[in-house]
Design brief:
The complex is a heterodimer. By secondary structure, chain A is of the alpha/beta class. Chain A contains 6 helices and 15 strands. In chain A, α2 packs across α5 and α3 crosses α4. Chain A is globular, with a radius of gyration of 23 Å. The termini of chain A are far apart. Chain B folds into 2 domains: about 180 residues, Rossmann fold (3-Layer(aba) Sandwich), CATH 3.40.50; about 120 residues, Rossmann fold (3-Layer(aba) Sandwich). The radius of gyration of chain B is 22 Å and the shape is globular. Chain B starts with a strand and ends with a helix. The chains are: A alpha/beta, B alpha/beta. At the A-B interface, α3, α4, β9, β10 and β11 of A face α4, β7, β9, β10 and β13 of B. β11 of chain A pairs antiparallel with β13 of chain B, so a sheet runs across the interface. The structure holds flavin-adenine dinucleotide (2 copies).
């Protein structure tokens, strides 16, 4: 079985409180925030590696990302992926999910359609949850998002999709695209042995000219959605301190609740 | 480009209209009050007469319906095919959908099939001075919000989180009904087959409907303390909510009461947060509460900045005192 895992390096989501917007340029300042593998992409990779351990598979990771985050792809290889593909070119910059997924599709065309494509359910930064579905749609493959459980059979998978009411179980024919939820498994750690093994694994870089792309569908210009202004909402409130012994504070809180128009029986 | 035809995807919840559908319609009517704007709603499901009646009274001009056994459970391919059919029939400039587990999968799929832009999980929609529709999309866990425009392709599609807008009341007018041709489902590939539906027990008072929400975070510290928090919510006639670490710690069984980016957005009259640091992922789901009280042992806790009142101290002690005071 051939599996491709989509991976997006993102600014560390545990540090988003530090983000600001430059008042001059109106651009995001992410100074001091390290880049990490998007959390749920690790779950997608773990799922692929689990299938590899069980049935044998070749696991490739693919990422459209600036070259400075190639070390994150190396990290995937150290976790156990077999080879890496990085799509990187100025021309792809500013892509929305429509053109990101189009470009990923074109690179996968170049690599060869696998039996299974796994992605994280959402990125921590853009967080649209669009890319896995849109990649599948470009490739005319079936897709399921919010996947928490997978079980593999010869030519099909059994998967569970989380829903408002609980979950739905589906059988899906391969090849297919699944978007995997965080918490669906426990991603493995990188070991020293894995790091050594990763050194001999290849990472291939695709620039624009390496792919058979329609230029009107890539990058910012090929994107049907266009960004306007970035806003950091001001959510500041008075933050008035309630003081006293716990009983006194409790009494003050109850008074505040009543004042808000909620009936409380005391 | 003009907005003359607006289609709302009428999401269902237990064979009734999901509140988000009416929230979207109300917002669209507020932004586009002109009398020459046509509104449509599309309903896909099985045995949904109740929802159809609600949709017809919702204030739209036209309701599209496909009532078919194959639509009784969400199915990415059947639903996308049926929705495309409604889009072709109504020819909307704007398609609005709830960012639910289903809607979130359908909206981007339609974006590719219709070769158009999709704005994701919007928190607001508004017109710019130039009359362009800005779709406000949160990113980086809600820390920033980006204006997203779809200048050239139609319909433009936006998914919107439930609970962002208020739904206006039903209207007297009764929209006409247009039945979609069920045979369109026959040609959908059978690559995905529904095998079963697992329903979890839903709380009698979901967090998004409660007037008072007592929300606990990792600082609660133990299942026993969590229990007290639940008792407190009960005594206040409200609901208990949580942050993600409280789920990871195993104190809360499932995500239906999680507040934030990956959970729900709520606007209760009162929100009391206990043992919550105030990560942007959480704040973006509770910032619209009427009154916000935060209790945290750390005097520099981030959550204090977004609170009307703060208590610096052991949250579990305050919870205990509240329980005693309420008897
Ligand atoms: C403030 C803001 C708002 C935005 N709003 C929109 C919007 O409304 N509509 C829109 O179309 N675009 C929007 N974008 C652009 C969008 O974030 C980018 O196109 C982004 O590169 C891909 O989308 P995502 O991060 O949301 O990924 P998601 O779709 O959330 O990612 C899900 C999974 O897809 C895979 N994946 C995603 N990107 C890549 C990649 N580059 N390489 C490999 N795998 C990948 C990963 O497995 C990831 O876990 C917005 C960007 C910002 C900054
Ligand atoms: C992609 C992504 C999506 C996410 N989505 C969500 C989401 O939807 N919702 C969500 O909540 N989180 C979400 N998170 C997680 C989020 O980033 C934070 O980690 C989380 O909100 C922190 O929860 P917390 O405040 O309970 O825990 P912590 O950050 O650990 O804070 C615990 C707090 O309790 C205080 N405390 C400790 N003991 C006591 C005591 N005895 N009394 C009073 N206070 C005490 C501490 O001072 C501390 O401030 C997401 C993260 C990512 C990466």
């Amino acid at each position: 079985m051939n599996i491709i895992v989509c991976v997006k390096p993102v600014p560390d989501p545990d540090k988003y409180n530090l983000l600001t917007i430059d008042p001059e340029t109106k651009r995001l300042v992410r100074e001091g925030i390290p880049t990490v593998i998007n959390p749920s992409d690790k779950n997608a990779l773990e799922e692929a590696l689990r299938l590899k351990d069980l049935y044998g598979a070749k696991v490739s990771v693919i990422s459209m990302t600036p070259l400075f985050s190639v070390d994150k792809i190396k990290q995937c290889l150290a976790m156990g992926a077999d080879e890496g593909f990085v799509i990187s070119d100025r021309a792809f910059g500013g892509a929305d999910t429509f053109s990101t997924s189009y470009t990923l599709m074109k690179a996968i065309e170049e690599i060869g359609t696998p039996d299974l494509i796994l992605a994280g359910n959402e990125s921590a930064d853009g967080a649209t949850s669009h890319v896995p579905v849109q990649l599948a749609e470009w490739m005319s493959l079936p897709h399921i998002t919010n996947v928490t459980v997978t079980e593999a059979f010869e030519t099909k998978l059994h998967v569970r999709k989380k829903t408002e009411e609980g979950s739905v179980d589906y059988e899906i024919d391969l090849p297919a695209v699944l978007a995997v939820e965080r918490n669906s498994n426990q991603p493995r750690m990188v070991t020293a042995k894995g790091m050594v093994a990763a050194r001999s694994k290849s990472i291939r870089v695709f620039a624009k000219d390496d792919l058979d792309v329609d230029e009107s569908l890539i990058g910012l210009c090929g994107s049907p959605t266009q960004p306007g202004e970035l806003i950091v909402p001001n959510l500041k409130r008075a933050s008035q301190e309630l003081k006293g012994e716990p009983e006194e504070i409790a009494a003050q809180i109850i008074t505040l609740i009543k004042k808000s128009g909620v009936a409380v029986a005391v | 480009m003009d907005m003359k035809r607006i289609l709302v995807y009428g999401e269902l919840e237990k064979e009734r209209l999901h509140p988000v559908s009416l929230e979207l319609l109300s917002k669209a009517k507020e932004i586009f009050p002109e009398s020459d704007v046509q509104f449509g709603m599309v309903l896909l499901g099985s045995g949904i007469d109740g929802a159809v009646a609600e949709a017809q009274k919702s204030g739209v001009d036209l309701v599209y319906l496909l009532d078919d056994q194959r639509l009784s459970v969400f199915h990415p391919e059947y639903f996308a095919a049926a929705l495309i059919q409604a889009v072709k029939a109504f020819n909307p400039d704007l398609l609005l959908m709830g960012a639910t587990y289903g809607g979130e999968e359908l909206a981007p799929a339609l974006g590719i099939r219709l070769k158009t832009g999709v704005a994701a999980h919007c928190t607001d929609l508004r017109l710019t001075k130039e009359g362009k529709l800005a779709q406000l999309v949160p990113a980086f866990g809600g820390k920033v919000i980006g204006e997203i425009f779809t200048p050239n392709t139609r319909p433009q599609i936006a998914s919107i989180k439930p609970g962002m807008f208020l739904a206006s009341p039903q209207e007297d007018k009764n929209a006409s009904l247009s039945i979609l041709d069920a045979s369109l489902l026959d040609s959908v590939s059978q690559r995905i087959r529904v095998k079963g539906v697992n329903r979890k027990e839903l709380s009698s008072l979901p967090v998004e409907k409660a007037e008072v929400v007592v929300c606990g975070g990792y600082g609660i510290g133990s299942p026993e303390n969590w229990n007290s928090l639940e008792q407190l919510a009960g005594k206040l006639g409200g609901a208990v909510a949580c942050t993600r670490p409280a789920i990871d710690a195993g104190w809360v069984g499932d995500e239906s009461s999680m507040i934030g980016t990956s959970g729900k957005s709520i606007r209760p009259k009162v929100y009391i947060g206990v043992g919550i640091s105030g990560a942007t992922h959480h704040i973006c789901g509770m910032k619209d509460a009427g009154l916000i009280v935060s209790i945290n042992s750390d005097p520099n806790a981030e959550c204090f900045n977004v609170s009307d009142f703060k208590v610096t101290g052991d949250g579990n002690l305050i919870v205990r005192s509240l329980l005693e005071a309420l008897g």
